[in-house]
Design brief:
The protein is built from 12 helices and 10 strands. The chain is an alpha/beta fold. The chain has a 6-stranded mixed beta sheet with strand order 6-7-8-3-9-10, sandwiched between helices. It has a 4-stranded antiparallel beta sheet with strand order 2-1-4-5. β9 and β10 form a beta hairpin. α5 packs across α7.
């Protein structure tokens, strides 16, 4: 099963003087268990696209099927759709609302008509998954948590519903480097547990550290789609649209210009190991 999008188009305020086309003829598939990164400049259509995936924007043109749920149907099952597709918005901590962390996290399972015991068990599991101790945090007000704790609690509220597909819009926005690393470590953990992950980001270095595949948007279209390991081949087309390749790819290109050949990887750790091997082989690196 998968999320399949075909020929999706969408126009805001259609038929008015303020009409603006946000998406045009977009086709994309998200497979089970994969990590897809979506990149693009502000206004490129990224957020409009992901809001279609769990029915937050009504389908206007094209076709979307999520694990057999056809959004072109007259009355698609949006409740089931949103159980399958969990959405974490930019600055998700602003969505916290309940008196306690436990009430906030178990809100989704409660709406799914789970028993009280099931709701608490799911909330416990979700909080532990995001690194918040259940007993320590369950009775605390979410508004008294630190910024990082709030974001984790908000994510816990989404994953407590056990979505098969988790979509996150700029999940590291506003965080320091350590906070970003922690959040992506958490996302990777959720992915390892079986969920497919879709992350929208403007930071190409960040997204290439974790994603398997990239879809690059510009002016409402996907202009490039590729495996992360192949991103170097797309440097010029990315640059033409205001994006670039990760720092590791740029450094590898400079090394090759100086006659230093190697099997340079995109991810930083793998890249560093490659460079280290070159040193061990006593190759001279004159940068």
């Amino acid at each position: 099963m998968s999320v399949t999008v075909k020929n999706l188009s969408y126009t805001y305020m259609k038929g008015t003087p303020y009409e603006k086309r946000a998406l045009f003829d977009v086709s994309l598939t998200v497979g089970e268990g994969e990590f897809l990164g979506i990149v693009g400049a502000t206004g490129s259509g990224k957020s409009t696209f992901i809001k279609h995936l769990n029915g937050l924007i009504k389908l206007e043109s094209g076709c979307i099927v999520v694990d057999g749920i056809d959004l072109t149907a007259k009355k698609p099952d949006l409740k089931l759709l949103r159980q399958k597709v969990g959405m974490v918005f930019q600055y998700p901590e602003s969505q916290l609302f309940a008196e306690t962390v436990l009430d906030d996290v178990r809100y989704g399972p409660k709406n799914m008509k789970k028993s009280r015991e099931e709701c608490e068990a799911l909330a416990r599991e979700a909080l532990e998954t995001v690194g918040l101790d259940f007993e320590r945090f369950k009775n605390r007000s979410p508004f008294e948590l630190s910024g990082g704790e709030k974001r984790r609690a908000a994510i816990a509220g989404v994953i407590a519903c056990k979505p098969k597909y988790l979509i996150l819009d700029e999940p590291s926005a506003g965080l320091d480097p350590k906070g970003k690393e922690d959040i992506y470590g958490l996302i990777s953990k959720i992915r390892e547990a079986g969920a497919a992950v879709v992350v929208v980001s403007h930071d190409i270095d960040e997204i290439c550290e974790y994603a398997d595949r990239i879809a690059a948007f510009d002016e409402g279209r996907i202009f490039a789609e590729f495996d992360v390991s192949e991103i170097g081949k797309y440097r010029e087309i990315l640059r033409e649209r205001g994006l670039d390749v990760p720092m590791t790819v740029r450094v590898a290109a400079e090394l090759k210009k100086r006659g230093i050949e190697g099997d340079f990887a995109v991810r930083k750790k793998d890249f560093a190991e490659c460079v280290s091997r070159l040193f061990e082989e006593k190759k001279t690196l004159k940068i």
